[in-house]
Amino acid sequence: MEFGLKTESLTVDMAAVQRRKRHMVRELRDIHAEHIAASGAELIRGLARFIAPRTVEIEPHDGSRRTIRGARVFLDLGSRAAIPQVPGLAEAPPMTHVEALELDRLPKHLIVLGGGYVGLELSQAFRRFGSNVRVIEHGLQLASREDPDVGAALKDLFVDEGIEVLLDSTVRRVEGRSCDRVRVSVSDERGDRLIDGTDLLVAPGREPNTNGIRLDKTGVQLDERGYIETMYPVFGIRGACYLLGVSEWIFCLLIFIGFWNKTAGVLGALGGIASFVGTRTIIPFMPDGWAASAGGFPAMTERVAFLMKDLVLLAVSFYLLKQDLLRLSIERSTDTRDESYSGELPISPNSSKRTA
Ligand SMILES: Cc1cc2nc3c(=O)[nH]c(=O)nc-3n(C[C@H](O)[C@H](O)[C@H](O)COP(=O)(O)OP(=O)(O)OC[C@H]3O[C@@H](n4cnc5c(N)ncnc54)[C@H](O)[C@@H]3O)c2cc1C
After folding, report:
1. Which atom of ligand 1 is nearest to the CA of 79?
2. Residues of the chain with confidence (pLDDT) below 50
3. Binding pocket residue ranges, ligand 1, CB within 6 Å
C-alpha cells in the first residue's frame, strides 16, 4: 500500500510460465550457437571419453564415432545434483533442479532437501508462484558457505515469505512418490517428525561429471569426491614455478655467501638474473603463478611481495656480479703475476749479469 498500488487477485499459469522459460532458453541457445559458428569453432554434439592422453573418442548422437586429438584439452564437464543415500529417496524419485525447471504445473506442497543456493533459489521461486514450501537443511544455517548472520537473515526472509525452514535436521527415510504424495521422516535434536508433501526436490549439493570419461587414461588425478585435483603434473609448469621460486632463494643465499666466496657470489648473481628472466616469462601464463613462484615461502604470496623480492634480487645480483667479476678479474691477474714469479724466471744473460 506504500506505493498506492492494490492487487485484487493474482493467479499463476504455470504452463504459460514454462512456455516463456522454454522460449528464453531456445533464444539463448540460438545466440550461443551463432557465436560459436561465427568464431569458427566446430561444435560436436556427443559424449566424449578419453582413449589416450589428449585424445578423445566421441560418440555423436547420430551413432557414428570420431576420434580427435588436441595439443591442449580443457575439461569443462560441469556437475550434477547429488542424490543422498537415504532409504526410499531414489525410489521416490525426487526432482532435481532439471525437472523442477521443466514443471508446467505448480506443486501444492513442495519439500526441498538442502538449503544451499540452488535449494533456496527454487524454494523462493515456487513459494512466490504459490506453492507451500518447506526447506530441510542438515546444517545449522541456510547458505552454509556464508557468514552466520547472512544465514540468519535469509532464514528470517524465508519465514516472512511463508516458507518453513528446518535447520539441523537429518532426513532418515522417504516414503511414497514425488509428484503425488510423499512423506519424509526427519530427525533433529527435539526428536523425529514426519513431513508430508506432494513433491520432493533434492538440492543437497553437486557432484562432478568426471566419472565415465576415462580420465585414468590421461594421468589427471581426482580427489575422493571426484573433483579434478590438479591439472598440472608434478613437474609441469606449476612445478617449474615452484622450482623457480625455490631456486631464487638459493641464489639469494649464494649471493650472501659471496661476501666470503667470490665464485658462489658470481653463481648466485648469474642464477638470480636467469631466474628473474625465467619467472617473468612463465608466471603470466600460470594460474596462481605469482603465489607459486614465491617458492612456498608463506609470507610471499602476494604479487607485490613477489615483485619486491624479484626486483631487489635482480638489482643486488647485477651490482654484486659487477663487483665480483671485477674482484675475480683482479685476483686472476694477480694470480697470473704470482705464477710467473713463482716459477723459474727466464733469466737473460743480461739480467743474470744484473742480478749477479
Ligand atoms: C539451479 C542452478 C542455478 C544456478 N544459478 C547460477 C547463477 O545465477 N549464476 C551463476 O553464476 N551460476 C549459477 N549456477 C551455476 C552455473 O550453472 C555453473 O557454475 C556453470 O554452469 C558451470 O559451467 P560449466 O561449463 O563448468 O558446466 P556446465 O554448464 O554444467 O556444462 C558442462 C557441459 O559438459 C557436458 N559434458 C559433461 N560430460 C561430458 C562428456 N563426457 N562429453 C561431452 N560433454 C560432456 C554437459 O552435458 C554440459 O553440457 C547455477 C546452477 C544451478 C544448478
Report:
1. 30
2. 232-234, 296, 298-299, 301-302, 341-356
3. 47-49, 76-78, 97, 118, 121, 209, 213
| H or E, element range at 263 | helix 262-282
Span from the CA of 60 to the centroid of ligand 1 (angstroms): 20
Q: What is the pTM of this model?
A: 0.68
What contacts 45, CB < 8 A, 6 or more positions away?
60, 61
Residue 95: DSSP 8-state: B
Q: Quick one: fold of 81-207?
A: FAD/NAD(P)-binding domain (3.50.50)
Distance of CA 110 to the CA centre of its chain: 33
Q: Where are the domains of the chain?
A: 1-29, 81-207, 237-339
- What ligand 1 atom has the least distance to the C-alpha of 213? 41
pLDDT in tens, 143-169: 999 999 999 999 999 999 999 999 999
